[in-house]
Write a structure and sequence with these properties.
Layout: E1 3-9, H1 13-24, E2 29-33, H2 58-71, E3 75-78, E4 83-86, E5 91-94, E6 99-107, E7 111-113, H3 121-124, E8 129-130, H4 133-136, E9 144-148, H5 152-161, E10 167-171, H6 181-188, E11 193-196, E12 200-206, E13 210-217, E14 220-225, E15 228-231, E16 235-237, E17 267-269, H7 281-301
Parallel strand pairs: 1-2, 1-6, 2-3, 6-17, 8-15, 9-10, 9-15, 10-11
Antiparallel strand pairs: 4-5, 5-6, 7-16, 12-13, 13-14
């Protein structure tokens, strides 16, 4: 069986950057992705803080990165990884159809949007409730939309939706928005946006289609008529496939040192799946670059 130098699991900004560095270092590298390249970028309407890119859609930036990966001839496989096993100097990466072997593994699987877990959410998921404004925003042209959350994603996507929907109501569980001040300032100047602070969604209601959302406030429960809802309340790390290795914290994020090393030799991790302070495109790409430099040192220690 072929043994790769490195298998990278996840083709977000961390994984794609790592694959570029690995290929340029002449490593026999495989980049694996279960869906589309880009990770959370492809669900982001606009990015304007990635150095040199100016204002760009998340999809466009993701495609530019992937085109760079392809231009170098990086081997890419679109298949889900269900388990990683540590066999010492060799690791096994298991998919539903095959088992691959590699000397080192870099986990860059990212994180998925968190859900509220309230009544009616499962009933209207992806048919009234969405986690991607750039994907589903056009469905709500001149309609009423509710956005849950107050961080960067919630505010930036609300700004995007404000150009499509007739009216937007933002429900935030704190007494303030926690997004970047510039984005908050722009939102506050947007005429078709209302914000309900210190509130939480407790129910999604309707029949064949979503009709309203019940919101609990300090003054009681308020029913808001809506055509669609977008949730931006944080992330859940994609790390189930390595949970048995003991490298995750209680929230499922992977714990690494400054070299992007987990406590299992030969298994590294980078990007949003890591326990870290800031999750941005630029920090993910940085993690990927740092990881590969240390993966190269690890492979050298094996005598390769």
């Amino acid at each position: 069986m072929k043994v790769y130098d490195l298998i990278i699991i996840g083709a977000g900004p961390a994984g794609m950057t790592a694959s570029i560095y690995a290929k340029r270092a002449n490593l026999d590298v495989l980049l694996m992705e279960k869906s589309a390249p880009g990770g959370q970028m492809i669900s982001t309407a606009e990015i304007e803080n990635y150095t040199g890119a100016g204002k760009v859609s998340g999809v466009d930036l993701a495609m530019k990165m992937f085109e760079h990966v392809q231009s170098l001839g990086v081997e890419t496989m679109f298949e889900e990884v269900v388990k990683v096993y540590d066999l010492g100097s060799v690791k096994e990466v298991v998919t539903p159809s095959q088992t691959l072997q590699t000397k080192a593994v870099l986990i860059t699987a990212g994180a998925n949007p968190r859900t509220l877990g309230v009544k009616g959410e499962d009933d209207y998921a992806y048919r009234g409730i969405s986690w991607c404004a750039i994907c589903d925003g056009p469905l709500y042209k001149d309609k009423r939309v509710l956005v849950v959350g107050g961080g960067n994603s919630a505010v930036e996507e609300s700004l995007f939706l404000s150009n499509i929907a007739s009216h937007i109501t933002i429900v935030q569980n704190l007494d303030r928005l926690t997004a970047d001040p510039k984005a908050v300032s722009l939102l506050m100047k947007t005429p078709n946006v209302d914000i309900i602070f210190n509130a939480k969604v407790i129910s999604f209601n309707g029949d064949d289609a979503l009709k309203s959302v019940d919101v609990e406030t300090k003054d009681g429960v308020k029913s808001i008529e809506v055509d669609g809802v977008f949730e931006y309340i944080g992330l859940t790390p994609v790390s189930d496939f390595v949970s048995h290795l003991g490298i995750t914290n209680e929230a499922g994020y992977i714990v690494v040192n400054s070299n992007m090393e987990t406590k299992v030799k030969g298994i590294f991790s980078a990007g949003d799946v890591n326990q870290k302070q800031i999750r941005q495109v630029v920090t993910a790409t940085s993690d990927g670059a740092i990881a590969v430099q240390n993966i190269i040192k690890y492979l050298e220690s094996l005598g390769e």
